[in-house]
Specification:
Length: 127
């Protein structure tokens, strides 16, 4: 991945946010990427764990790569969540920019972050 980054002119970690699936495939990383479901986000998190990667900074937000730190910080301030039960009223369309595309993704992330709360998938909005 470092060699690929050099070939693409990436000098800093932030430059890798421009890395695409096509870049990986064209530079011989297809097999490596398949280990991480062809997700540059997951691949980079594994290769550079010392850097705090954010899924929403990639050119294309990868599915199933929810950044739990983002849920605490950016999402709370953006969608006006004051109580955990407020999550039920947030439309999914407001969460796509954070890598959340389905109710199940949101519920899994929230269960990981707040395991003491009894989440009910049927109470979440679909839109």
């Amino acid at each position: 991945v470092l060699d690929m980054g050099k070939e693409l002119g990436f000098l800093e970690y932030q430059d890798f946010y421009r890395l695409s699936q096509r870049d990986i495939a064209q530079h011989g990383g297809r097999g490596f990427a398949q280990i991480y479901n062809n997700s540059p986000f997951k691949c980079l998190k594994a290769v550079f764990p010392e850097f705090n990667w954010s899924a929403r900074k990639f050119l294309r937000i990868p599915r199933n790569s929810i950044d739990l730190h983002t849920i605490d910080n950016s999402v709370f301030s953006t969608v006006s969540v004051k109580n955990l039960s407020d999550w039920y009223r947030i439309p999914l369309s407001n969460l796509k920019k954070f890598g959340i595309h389905k109710r199940t993704e949101l519920v899994l992330a929230l269960k990981q972050k707040y395991p003491e709360y009894k989440w009910n998938i049927h109470q979440f909005q679909n839109s």
